[in-house]
Amino acid sequence: MSIARFWRETPRRYNLGGSRCTTCGTVYFPPRLVCPTCTHHRQSIGKMVPFQLSGDGEVFSFTIVHDPAEGFEMQVPYVVALVRTVEGPILTGQVVDIGPEEARIGLKVRATFRKLREEGKAGVIHYGYKFAPVDELPERPPAGRLAEAPAETARGEDRAPA
Amino acid sequence: MEAGIVSYGAYVPRYRITPAEIGRVWGSDGESMGQGLNVERKSVPAPDEDTITISTEALRMALVRGAIDPQQIGAVYVGSESHPYAVKPTATVVAQAVGATPNLTAADFEFACKAGTAAIQTCLGLVGAGMVRYGVAIGTDTSQGAPSDALEYSASAGGAAFVIGRDHVIARVERTLSYTTDTPDFWRREGQRYPSHSGRFTGEPAYFRHETECARRIMEASGTEPKDYAHVVFHQPNGKFPQRVGKQLGFSDAQMRYGLVTPYIGNTYSAAALLGLANVLDHAGPGERVLVVGYGSGAGSDAFDLTTTDELARFDRSFGRPVQYHLDHGTELSYAVYAKFRGKIQMGGS
Hints:
The structure holds two protein chains of two kinds. By secondary structure, chain A is mainly β. Chain A has a domain at about 55-135: CATH 2.40.50. In chain A, about 10% of the residues lie in helices and about 35% in strands. Chain A has three helices and eight strands; from the N terminus they run ααββββββββα. In chain A, the strands form two sheets. A five-stranded antiparallel sheet of chain A has the order 6-5-4-7-8. Chain A has a three-stranded antiparallel sheet with strand order 2-1-3. In chain A, a hairpin with a 6-residue loop joins β7 and β8 (about 125-135). The two termini of chain A are about 20 Å apart. By secondary structure, chain B is α/β, with parallel strands linked by helices. Chain B folds into two domains: about 5-170 and about 320-340, 3-Layer(aba) Sandwich (Peroxisomal Thiolase, Chain A, domain 1), CATH 3.40.47.10; about 170-310, Thiolase/Chalcone synthase (Peroxisomal Thiolase, Chain A, domain 1, 3-Layer(aba) Sandwich). In chain B, the strands form three sheets. Chain B has a nine-stranded mixed sheet, with helices on both faces. Chain B has a three-stranded mixed sheet with strand order 3-2-14. In chain B, α4 (about 90-95) links the parallel β4 and β5. The radius of gyration of chain B is 19 Å and the shape is globular. The interface of A and B includes residues 74 and 141 of A.
């Protein structure tokens, strides 16, 4: 993948930046400009806002990869799963920190930041989300100091690349 | 000094290897080596982990725990001796990955094992001067010892992130003080894969001198004695050195209990003292005094005289795994898998 293409996708790969329809509330990842859920799609034009997924979810389905993609040779066999996030979208990603025998549908996972691949020994290193199991999913701090900050800037806002 | 620690997070990779397993491969008594070093196991990063991913995990944990808006972060400094890039800062990727960009300054720090504590001091200066609201200091490493070298039995991986600010401070910094000299005890030349060290010289004139001098000087400046501290954290290249330096200074095992983590996860280099501090903050209550003395080869020590505040009682430590989890858990690897994970096996092809 070219450096420029990957760089354009960093808001998604680093921070799970999706979008949310302010008309019906549906969350999308990757982000959409129009909401296909709204009866009249045109209703959503101009009403889609950036939305950052929390990264919490559970395994919807999975497969064990024995014939690795380039750059994943050291991790064979590894788990690739469809993860249903708590916000709704289903994401495809590698599940790390578990052996293949530990993978199961319904496993609680949380997004983790990992190295995706390297462009050889001298090239750039690409990073992004994978998933790792969590013991339980405690509620994120609800009130407290986060409530003092405007919700849009505290969480849930996509960050444009610098 | 008004600035202090507002939040913190810690991360240690999941995998472990024992000194006995390492010794089995090199024909030495690894178990005795481990006992001599007081290291039961050391952590090993997965093939897709490096100091950038470890730093990001630790900082994300700190930001959620402290309910901190990443856009309020004015500085991110990452201290490490194993940055993935020689040129391209670790701090840029970390800052982007936590949503702190673009209105901040960022840089990578290097001072052997004390780059993380040096970053804390820099953040204290920036916050104290009112230049930034929050400064982030991270100490992290995925260091390696050359195969069969004594360092291989302890060199491990981990990271801890500290958010420095003025609001809702959970640990007030009463004083910080450093002690620095030119002492060639441990180094890695440009382009070299593994570090070199000067054997026994790394002990007395390097580690012990700097740790004890720095600790004595900060206690003298603060007018305190060892008995005034509930907890003490020393740099811990192994589990034995910090115990010895603690006894030399007059600290008890009880004071060192939470600050000593190396016996269970190995020497995390730039993260070693900071993971010890994170473990102390995981267990401490309000109003407890903590002495932290980091050390970096080359050589220097940074000391911090901290007092936990009432804010610590309100601080949410439930998000993410506490340091104790990493000390108690882990998946053990054989040396062969460890060698594969750490890139020590020559692969075929281009």
